[in-house]
Design a protein that fits this description.
Helices cover 43% and strands 16% of the residues. The chain has twelve helices and twelve strands. Strands 5-4-2-6-10-8-11-9 form an eight-stranded mixed β-sheet, with helices on both faces. A two-stranded parallel sheet has the order 1-3. The protein has a two-stranded antiparallel ribbon with strand order 7-12. Strand 4, helix 2 and strand 5 form a beta-alpha-beta unit. Helix 1 packs parallel to helix 2.
């Protein structure tokens, strides 16, 4: 279980909370936020029911949201019809950034620590005007990663508790129009994916998202970041607990990665997340990306293939220069 500290008292960054029909997760999230501190501005977006039976669950979430008091201004947006993951979440983020220049985004199953908000406040401020950065991730997919800094950069950052700016979201290619119309887009994407099998998987997801075969918004966001040559900030240790995996999840069904909770707590506690130490160079950490790929795809021990691929293209570039 995630231990919540109350080191943060007042959060100035605007917060968007995206909810649907899981009242237990919504209540737990609001309890956690109440324990962490008070918030200057909160936006709550609740999707509508899919079926008459679903309406009872959605109504419970709406009742919980109405009673929320986190110390600041609260704006609520409710849909009478079910918009689904793709339209529902992206329209909530559109609404959020029509009113704010930057902010933090949580879904009901992404339960934060107080360190998460310290980190987000500082990183959104630190990279506010740096167009190379599109996203601040609050979670680390593999729990923790040993680096010489408190955070690092990656081409890939998940959206289990994250933040961004209006300047980045404005580029969001929701229909992936450039995926088929701009030359060499797929080649550009492949160059950013170091693991051969991961490349096959991700490009298939991009194909499906562009063709509307999957009801999601986040592949389009990932695509936008990659083609804009923008990177994500990743904390060296996860500051979010994702509790939404399982049979009630919309898309994520695998079990959460088992973590050494005592180790995670020590790593979180050993860092001043309001002033984290950054990496020496602003480049994606491809070793972390490889570790994530091996974990998520289940193909461990294929690292040599990655290095073989890099060596092959290095040799080919050298040969081409000799001609």
């Amino acid at each position: 279980m995630c231990i919540i500290k109350t080191s943060v008292n007042f959060i100035t960054q605007p917060l968007l909370i995206v909810l649907y029909n899981r009242a237990d997760l919504a209540k737990r999230l609001f309890d956690i936020l109440n324990n962490i501190g008070t918030f200057q501005r909160i936006y709550i977006s609740i999707d509508g029911p899919r079926t008459p039976e679903d309406l009872l669950k959605v109504e419970k979430v709406r009742e919980i949201a109405k009673d929320v008091d986190l110390g600041g201004e609260i704006r609520m947006r409710q849909s009478e019809e079910n918009q689904g993951c793709k339209i529902g979440v992206r329209s909530a983020i559109d609404w959020f950034f029509s009113l704010e220049n930057e902010g933090v985004i949580l879904e009901d199953d992404c339960h934060p620590t107080s360190e998460f908000f310290e980190f987000m406040e500082e990183m959104l401020d630190r990279y506010r005007h740096d167009s190379r950065v599109a996203q601040i991730s609050g979670s680390n997919t593999i729990g923790s990663y040993n680096v010489d800094s408190d955070y690092f950069f990656s081409n890939f950052g998940n959206i289990w508790g994250w933040g961004t700016w209006r300047r980045a979201w404005t580029n969001y290619d929701r229909d992936m129009i450039t995926y088929r119309t701009v030359p060499y887009v797929r080649s550009n994407l492949r160059s950013k994916i170091h693991f051969v099998f991961d490349g096959i998987f991700r490009l298939k997801n991009f194909d499906d998202a562009e063709q509307g075969k999957i009801d999601t918004w986040d592949y389009q966001w990932m695509y936008t970041r990659l083609v804009q040559n923008q990177i994500c900030v990743i904390p060296a240790v996860s500051l979010i607990e994702n509790v939404g995996m399982g049979e009630d999840a919309t898309h994520t069904f695998q079990s959460a990665l088992p973590l050494d909770d005592s180790l995670i707590q020590r790593l979180r506690g050993s860092t001043d997340w309001s002033a984290p130490k950054g990496p020496k160079v602003m480049l994606p950490n491809y070793r972390f990306e490889l570790a994530v790929s091996e974990y998520k795809r289940g193909w461990r021990g294929f690292g040599p293939l990655v290095m073989g691929k890099k060596f092959f293209f290095l040799v080919m570039r050298k040969i081409s220069k000799l001609k």
